[in-house]
Specification:
Elements: H1 2-15, H2 19-22, H3 34-40, H4 49-67, H5 75-103, H6 113-116, H7 124-132, H8 144-164, H9 169-186, H10 189-205, H11 207-215, H12 219-237, H13 239-243, H14 249-273, H15 275-281, H16 284-310, H17 316-358
Helix pairs in contact: 1-4, 1-16, 1-17, 4-8, 4-10, 4-14, 5-7, 5-8, 5-16, 5-17, 8-10, 9-10, 9-14, 12-14, 14-15, 16-17
């Protein structure tokens, strides 16, 4: 699922170069016609970058919680290896972004509000802020905003797991969704985003029970049940954009936040237990995308912005930026992320040995 979500984020940023598609993200109404359909119907799922990031958050909560159950898991090795795993690619991505901005200046007129608002320089102070993450990235490389919350969750994982053991899984999920909704209502980012990871922790707490219940579903009813369930979950995930024409952005966000999070959580379960979604997500292209998903997420935006300034027509951006970003992501994965994986494993193994010796 990470690969598909990363691709959606790439398409999302590529389409924000189009003025009419960027405008609704900045409080302006969508123009009638094709633009309106792309924004306010389920077609938005094809480029719903915000919802894709929510999936990243919930999935991180699930995956790290399940990993913490392993008999070989130890906190002494988890923290250093996790820091290496996250920060080495981030630092390299910041350097790459600086090179791209220096070689391909973000200059020239543009009608896209999003493109016009992207920084045209990358001062050292901003680079250091982005490498640190904690305390707020600069916004020059906008995908890094989500990495701040990923790092905070990674550091707070023991707290999440402790809290998760104090209540049943369903109550964890309800509490997480309620807190995120409150965060959306009062526009408090920490309250909005950090509980999303808790929803993933809740899924992990009930993972075996979910598998047991779904495993009892007769084969003859599984297809219609999953068809209705996945369709409903997709509509829930897209509910903000379908409600937005009828109310303000703030109200739409608060009202639909619980629906979106429930929809994303259901899609994660369906990806594992529903036959067709599981087969699609297990296909070679999507497994490959999953392998390079972190690299793709980190490197794509500076390339999209550079291409957006170079092409004569905004819609051409997505046709050029997607393949270019995929190629760069593959190179970045092989040169940076895969070695970072190896280094993180060595750090974990070394830390584990130190813990054993200290004991």
């Amino acid at each position: 699922m990470r690969g598909l979500a990363a691709l959606i984020v790439l398409v999302h940023h590529s389409l924000l170069v189009v003025p009419g598609l960027a405008a609704p993200y900045f409080g302006q109404p969508a123009e009638p016609g094709v633009t309106w359909l792309l924004v306010h119907t389920p077609l938005h799922l094809l480029w719903g970058g915000t919802e894709a990031v929510y999936l990243f958050f919930i999935l991180s909560g699930l995956v790290l919680s399940l990993a913490a159950r392993s008999s070989s898991f130890s906190w002494g090795s988890y923290f250093p290896s996790r820091i290496v795993r996250l920060y080495v690619p981030v630092v390299a991505a910041v350097v790459l972004a600086a090179v791209v901005i220096a070689l391909l200046p973000r200059s020239g007129p543009t009608e896209s509000i999003w493109l016009a608002g992207r920084g045209d320089a990358y001062p050292l102070r901003s680079m250091f802020a982005d490498m640190l993450l904690i305390g707020g990235p600069s916004g020059i490389v906008s995908p890094l905003w989500s990495l701040e919350w990923e790092v905070l969750f990674s550091l707070l994982l023991p707290v999440y797991l402790y809290a998760g053991r104090r209540m049943p899984a369903w109550l964890q999920a309800v509490a997480a969704i309620a807190l995120s909704t409150l965060g959306a209502l009062v526009s408090l980012p920490a309250l909005m985003y950090l509980p999303m990871f808790a929803l993933g922790v809740a899924l992990a707490s009930g993972w075996e029970r979910i598998a047991e219940i779904l495993g009892r579903m007769p084969r003859r009813v599984a297809i219609p049940v999953w068809t209705v369930t996945v369709t409903g979950a997709l509509l829930l995930t897209n509910s903000y954009w379908m409600l937005l024409p009828f109310t303000s952005a703030g109200i739409a966000r608060a009202v639909t936040m619980p629906l979106i999070l429930a929809g994303v959580a259901i899609l994660i379960v369906a990806a594992v237990h529903a036959g067709l979604p599981n087969r699609i997500l297990s296909s070679r292209p999507l497994l490959f995308l999953g392998t390079i998903s972190f690299s793709l997420y980190l490197v794509h935006e500076p390339l999209v912005i550079a291409i957006g300034h170079l092409v004569p027509r905004p819609f051409l951006t997505v046709l050029i930026a997607v393949p270019v970003s995929l190629v760069v992501a593959v190179v970045f994965y092989r040169v940076v992320e895969r070695p970072a994986h190896i280094l993180a494993k060595r750090v974990r193994d070394h830390a584990a040995r130190e813990v054993v010796l200290a004991a």
